[in-house]
Design goal:
- The structure is a single chain.
- The chain has helices at about 5-10, 15, 30-40, 55-70, 85-95, 120-150, 175-195, 220, 225-230, 240-255, and strands at about 20-25, 45-50, 70-75, 100-105, 160-165, 200-210, 265.
- A seven-stranded parallel β-sheet has the order 3-2-1-4-5-6-7, with helices on both faces.
- The protein has one domain (about 5-270): Rossmann fold, CATH 3.40.50.720.
- It has about 280 residues and is an alpha/beta fold.
- The protein binds beta-D-glucopyranose.
- The site of beta-D-glucopyranose (BGC) has 10 residues, from loops.
Length: about 280
């Protein structure tokens, strides 16, 4: 995150009202998850920086960056597709910070292939991490929220869950059918949870990023030719940055968005506007 963004978030810290709340951010060692964990940490959230087994060093780096900005963080090791590891990570988070108020279920990956060549392992890996991982983390968060009860001095919500979806929850994606299927699933996981838990004041929403510069899609933006092709799909005329998503996550996690429930916020520079139809059709 650049210094200007850090200063902007730090200056708005009181307005977000997130000080003292605790967030679990999954997939927090790179890309959108890392930036969102940093943004929350700078805004005063105590952050559990989730990483896969073996990713401890990177998680420590994120924690150190949060602490250097005056925040509090701990690494949270768990493969999100592993039930025991997820539950144990939530137990450690509650043990250390006393409660969890926010889940940003972000961890995700792609394993694209021509459909006739896609292996069952490719399919399973993507569904396991992107969809089952979000189920397991949301379930652990919901169980904790219900057991803990309201803390009205901290938040008007019992808890807040943000699912990281994608424009591909709605846009079909040839050669990435496992990924598109996982994000379509995330959309209805989110909406069904929002319907089930609204009366308990668990606020559930999703963010659907478009093309954001992260390690997941370097092929799509690193060369001039690739970027020119990609920009044809983005009416706003620039490829997204991780800060674009992090500041949306911050707002959705905060109680500034307290009446936003069951929504997907598209942060995509207009990718959902079907730009190929401009002047055509
Ligand atoms: C994918 C990226 C892709 C973007 C737009 C995201 O969900 O992870 O690889 O660039 O959607 O297609």
């Amino acid at each position: 995150m650049d210094d200007r963004s850090k200063m902007r978030i730090a200056a708005a810290r009181a307005a977000y009202g997130l000080e003292g709340q605790v967030a679990v951010v999954t997939g927090a060692t790179s890309g959108i998850g890392r930036e969102s964990a940093l943004a929350m940490g700078i805004a005063g959230v105590r952050v559990v920086v989730n990483h896969r087994p073996g990713g401890e060093d990177k998680a420590q780096e994120v924690c150190a960056e949060i602490e250097a900005a005056g925040g509090t963080a701990m690494p949270g090791c768990a493969d999100v597709s592993d039930e025991k590891q997820v539950d144990a990570m939530f137990e450690r988070a509650v043990g250390k910070f006393g409660a969890v108020h926010i889940l940003l279920a972000n961890a995700g990956l792609q394993r694209g292939a021509r459909f006739e060549e896609m292996t069952l392992a490719d399919w399973r890996m993507v569904i396991d991490v992107n969809l089952t991982g979000q189920f397991l983390c949301a379930r652990a968060a919901v169980r904790h929220f219900l057991a803990r009860g309201m803390q009205p001095e901290i938040s008007p919500a019992l808890g807040k869950i943000i699912h990281m979806s994608s424009v591909h929850q709605g846009i079909p994606w040839a050669f990435e059918v496992n990924y598109a299927a996982s994000k379509g699933g995330v959309m209805l996981l989110m909406k069904s949870l929002a319907q089930e838990f609204g009366d308990r004041r668990i606020r559930v929403n999703a963010i659907a990023p478009g093309a954001i510069k992260t390690p997941i899609n370097t092929d799509a933006w690193q060369t001039d030719e690739a970027r020119a092709e990609l920009l044809k799909l983005i009416p706003y005329g620039r490829v997204g940055e991780t800060i674009d998503i992090a500041q949306t996550a911050l707002w959705l996690a905060s109680d500034l968005s307290d009446y936003v429930h069951g929504e997907t916020i598209f942060v995509d520079g207009g990718m959902m506007l079907y730009p190929a139809f401009r002047g055509g059709g």
